[in-house]
Design brief:
heterodimer; A: alpha/beta; Rossmann fold; 3-stranded antiparallel β-sheet; 7 helices; 36% helix; 22% strand; globular; B: mainly alpha; MetI-like fold; 80% helix
């Protein structure tokens, strides 16, 4: 588990919100730059909280969280967050939504425009730059959200159940696209999901979490080589991995009270 | 919601209006009330026609007072809301006093307003502003603090400053609320101006607005003309509301869910 220069490192991390009960307890983690790590577990296991700690949106209570050798907040310009809903600003066109991080950074307009079109082309949406978010389907919105995150060329991408609200076909296609994008401009990924198949398809490391308080119950390595193609899902090895993770998930769900 | 066809949107209020007028005539006939207590709609229209030049001139005068107070309320309401939206402690320190100001009857304040702002148009504008700016501030402030938490997190992840967050996130997100406040204010502004003319304007001989006509017709017991004045102020209010509706459409129709998206 020890990586030489971990991009994300947790040491004995505990987290509680205010005076509430412990949400996370005794987390140790070290992610290498090449890792695509998924976090899976029953609801309330604190997997989204893990991402909040890494992004600095919420502070740890005890222990240490290091991102790219520094604090989460200082490392913010190296990370991007993709939320469960696409969180596009409804009053901005697709193109202006993609530009937003650059605008907030203070980049000049021509540069932003060029970058926005480049990113929209990357996710195959260059034709809809002038559309408003409500004119887009769920899958398109999520692609715009990914394009927006990638404008900053992040080293670390945090994804909090980004495809949870999509139908299975769209979700599978976006999984493949996400891996393609990662092949073009590499980033470390931390991916929260409820779908075992999604986690197995995307990740090289899967962390199965137990709840109350959230702990890492087990880590599963997924050694299928990248690039991974859609047909991987039909291989018996893939199915075996899905079964292995599902079994672990059943273990923690039996322990969890809810 | 089920969609109502456009022609029905015009027909339905026309029908209810006709029923209302019929009821009016029925009550008048059944009660035996005289014209100077309950004039019929026709008598009101006749009075409006006879008094048309005075009503027209007075409506113009009132429109200036209403417009001045409304613009002041819209502008200052916006700024004050942004100040209130900036921090919780500012909100806590100012909001109760805002309520106190709103709960003080304007009629109590009128002598002070005349004393400070002066009689005539400045006083009328001040009264209009006082009456119409509270709903703007309440709505807009609510909008500024109701921003989607994920959007706020997105801005934090982009290292956006407070000023950027206010300008590019909270203010645009609050626009539907602000416009709802403006719409209420638009109905209040002509009322405020007429009240202001009645209370403030007359003390200096009056500026000749609708409020002055109310005073003058009342003392002359010209009741149909009084009804005609009420009708005129309604029309003025409609113009204000229509203007805000247009603004509302211009700002929101492209992106807000209260408007149907264009087909493509």
């Amino acid at each position: 588990m020890a990586a030489p220069n971990p991009i994300v490192e947790f040491r004995a991390v505990r987290k509680r919100y205010g005076v509430g009960p412990l949400v996370l307890d005794g987390l140790d983690l070290a992610l290498a730059a090449a890792d695509f790590a998924s976090f899976i577990g029953p609801s309330g296991c604190g997997k989204s909280t893990v991402l909040k700690l890494v992004s600095g949106l919420s502070p740890r209570t005890e222990g240490e969280v290091r991102v790219a050798g520094t604090t989460p907040r200082q490392a913010r310009d190296r990370q991007a967050f993709i939320f469960q809903d696409a969180t596009l600003l409804p009053w901005l066109t697709t193109q202006h939504n993609v530009e937003l991080p650059l605008k907030l950074r203070g980049d000049p307009a021509p540069l932003r425009l060029a970058k926005a079109w480049e990113m929209l082309a990357l996710v195959g949406l260059e034709k809809i730059g002038g559309y408003y978010p409500r004119q887009l389907s769920g899958g398109m919105k999520m692609r715009v959200s990914i394009a927006r995150a990638l404008t900053m060329a992040p080293q670390l991408l945090l994804l909090d159940e980004p495809f949870g609200a999509l139908d299975e076909m769209t979700r599978n296609r976006l999984n493949e696209e996400l891996l393609d994008l990662r092949a073009q401009s590499p980033f470390t990924a931390m991916f929260v999901t409820h779908s075992v198949a999604e986690a197995v398809f995307l990740s090289n490391r899967i962390f199965v979490m137990s709840a109350n308080p959230g702990r890492f119950h087990a880590e599963v390595r997924v050694d299928f080589a990248y690039p991974r193609r859609a047909m991987l899902r039909e291989q018996p090895e893939f199915q075996a991995k899905v079964n292995e993770v599902s079994r672990l998930l059943h273990q923690v769900e039996e322990v969890a009270p809810v | 919601m089920k969609k109502i066809p456009a022609w029905l949107l015009w027909l339905l209020p026309a029908i209810s209006g006709l029923i209302f007028v019929a009821l009016w005539y029925g009550i008048r006939a059944a009660s035996g009330l005289q014209s100077w207590i309950l004039p019929t709609p026709v008598e009101i229209m006749q009075a409006a026609w006879t008094e048309r030049s005075r009503l027209w001139y007075a409506a113009g005068q009132t429109a200036w007072g209403a417009l001045g107070g409304f613009v002041l309320a819209g502008g200052l309401g916006f700024l004050l809301s942004v100040v209130l939206g900036v921090s919780r402690s500012l909100r806590a320190s100012l909001y109760p006093w805002l309520l106190v100001l709103q709960m003080t009857p304007v009629i109590v304040l009128t002598p002070i307003i005349v004393l400070w702002a002066g009689p005539g148009l400045p006083g009328i504008i001040t009264v209009t502003w006082l009456i119409s700016f509270f709903p703007i501030v309440v709505n807009m402030t609510q909008g500024l603090v109701s921003t989607d938490q994920n959007h706020v997190a997105l801005f934090r992840m982009c290292n956006a400053g407070r000023f950027q967050e206010m300008l590019w996130l909270r203010v645009p997100a609050a626009m539907p609320y602000y416009l709802a406040g403006l719409r209420i204010a638009a109905t209040l502004a002509p009322i405020g101006a007429i009240f202001g003319e009645y209370m403030v304007g007359n003390s200096s001989g009056g500026s000749g607005g609708l409020g002055f006509l109310v005073y003058s017709y009342n003392t002359q017991i010209k009741i149909p003309a009084l009804f005609a004045t009420a009708l005129t102020s309604c029309l003025l209010g409609f113009i204000f509301v229509a203007a805000v509706s247009l603004l509302n459409w211009a700002v929101l129709h492209k992106w807000h869910d209260s408007f149907e998206p264009a087909d493509h």
